[in-house]
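Postdoc handover notes: sequence design on the structure in folder B. Input tokens:
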């Protein structure tokens, strides 16, 4: 299965729009402030762009930059709709490696 680049940017935008629209609810579920959720999502999104769409690399970079765990980033993304629904099963499986 090759890398399909025809839809990812629109789909990613949908994930981040979901997170933005539900900051307070996601923050409550994750146990951090809405501002922190927004910073994490924005940082992940920027890293996703700079990593050419590699969600594992983006999560690792975000975790390193912000001093949080990759699991915390995953949790936020999952509450926003999840990478699997937005980027396909392949992207979601990247997070499950070694788990």
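Designed sequence:
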């Amino acid at each position: 299965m090759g890398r399909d680049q025809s839809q990812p940017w629109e789909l990613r935008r949908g994930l981040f729009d979901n997170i933005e629209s539900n900051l307070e609810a996601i923050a409550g579920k994750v146990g951090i402030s809405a501002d922190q959720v927004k910073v994490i999502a924005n940082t992940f999104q920027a890293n996703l762009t700079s990593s050419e769409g590699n969600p594992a690399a983006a999560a690792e970079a975000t975790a390193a930059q912000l001093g949080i765990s990759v699991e915390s980033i995953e949790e936020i993304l999952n509450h926003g709709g999840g990478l699997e629904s937005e980027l396909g099963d392949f992207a979601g499986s990247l997070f499950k490696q070694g788990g």
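Context for whoever picks this up: Helices lie at 8-21, 23-30, 34-50, 55-66, 70-79, 83-87, 89-96. Don't rerun without checking with the PI first.
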